[in-house]
Amino acid sequence: MKKVALFMIFGQSNAVGHGVPMEEKDYIKEPLKNVFGLNREPNQSYDTERLKFTGYTSFGMNLAETQDNTYSVPNQLAKLWQNEIDNGVALPDLYIIQIAIGSQGLFGMWDINRPKKLIPGKLGDVDISM
What pTM value is reported for the model? Predict the structure, then answer.
């Protein structure tokens, strides 16, 4: 059986990279060869029966929110991990699971007395699948 590394990140600002958009030169446009993520398109659904990992890019890999191409923890880790492998370091493939939203509406989200739907915050609507 092949060994892999798994990085799961669930959180807010730093996990999303809110407010820190990448310069276009830093986008991960081509799917990475040894780093994989869960793209929103095939995976963000309540009735998903099987997860589909694809080569990591800096667009579409956060299951909870659409803040893409940001200097976030998962994007930076993906770049560093792939770079190390490309430079000959014997690392296993990395799989990243990211479910994070910015601060809007998150405070009190776990309060059992909160309204039963997420109220848009000051930064706009958030499409979550948590």
Answer: 0.78
**∠ CA 57-59-61 to the nearest 5 degrees?**
80
Burial class, 96, CB count within 10 angstroms (exposed 0-12 / middle 13-18 / buried 19+): buried
Tokens of 12: 């807010």
3-state secondary structure of 57: coil
Whole-angstrom Cα distance, residue 78 to residue 114? 36
- Rounded CA-CA distance 60/42 in Å is 10
Residue type, 26: D
pLDDT tens-place string over residues 21-67: 899 999 999 999 999 999 988 888 777 788 999 999 999 999 887 88
